[in-house]
Amino acid sequence: MLTLEDSRLTVDDLIAWLVRFDEQIVEHAERLTELDSAIGDADHGTNMARGTAAVRLRLTEARPDDAGAVLKSCGMTLVSTVGGASGSLYGTLFLEMAKRVGAASELDTTVFADAFRAGVAGVVARGRAEPGDKTMIDALQPTVDALSTAAAGGVPLTKSLQAAAAAAAAGRDATIPLVARRGRASYLGDRSADHLDPGATSAALLVQSLADSHAERVR
Ligand code: ADP
Ligand code: MG
Q: Ligand 1 pocket, 86 CB below 6 A?
């Protein structure tokens, strides 16, 4: 039996997701920075932690009224606090999702899958990375595909999000052998191979955070 809670994401579910994301970023910040020190400038963990802490504070101080407002607040806060390439890219992800969902108070799997697709399309338009370029897109695009497949198959939300998280993690891991073609890591040329991409790693945490926070809330 589908429960109501397992068929849609409410405003509180979205806030719980972003609080969980902040917890995960804090837990993994050192590791993210270490990954970025190998192929970038050693700031991805600190960049992200600054942003997710600000998002969390803002959302818990004043609860937005609808899903679009949660996502917009998150996107604007990330743009203004994260810095680095990832700030505007993660910001775009959330701002484009916000535009797509508008003033909806709840998002079902299909609407969420659609919104996430629009968000990732925004990141691609801004950063011009394609799958295989060793960026966050390598985790985000498989997420889009998994969500769409799940939505088309009428899969319950918890399972859809678990499939999405597994797809994101596989995409993250697949960045190891790749040579970076976008972002700072691309300056290294072939020497960027044999390393996990930091942005794909934080993006996998983003999707896993949603799968976990939602599974806990419907339990
Ligand atoms: P910066 O590279 O400016 O120091 P961060 O270290 O915070 O920013 O983020 C680096 C991550 O951003 C990379 O690991 C990569 O996943 C992602 N990234 C960089 N450039 C792009 C791009 N053009 N498109 C998509 N993702 C990108
Ligand atoms: Mg960096």
A: yes
